[in-house]
């Protein structure tokens, strides 16, 4: 199946802090994905990098098998990056 997004060894440092450590994954056409993990695990930073909001330290990603720029790809996808706060009731 065709890959919508392919991420290869994406890495992000903020000074001495490693926020994302060489993550790799593929998202296939027709599927819905979620990224789960504890606070501070790099979920928002990873999405920020592939959405062209955060510059990666190293690694690469490509949208639609590299056939279009990130700018054009963003017109075809949707992403939500937000902070949820749950309260116990």
UniProtKB/TrEMBL annotation:
Coiled coil: none annotated. One of its GO terms (molecular function) is ATP binding. The keyword Acyltransferase does not apply. InterPro entries: ABC_transporter-like_ATP-bd, ABC_Transporter_VariousFunc, P-loop_NTPase. Keywords: ATP-binding, Nucleotide-binding, Transport. The keyword Nucleotide-binding applies. It comes from the Bacteria. This is ABC transporter. The lineage of its organism: Bacteria, Pseudomonadati, Bacteroidota, Flavobacteriia, Flavobacteriales.
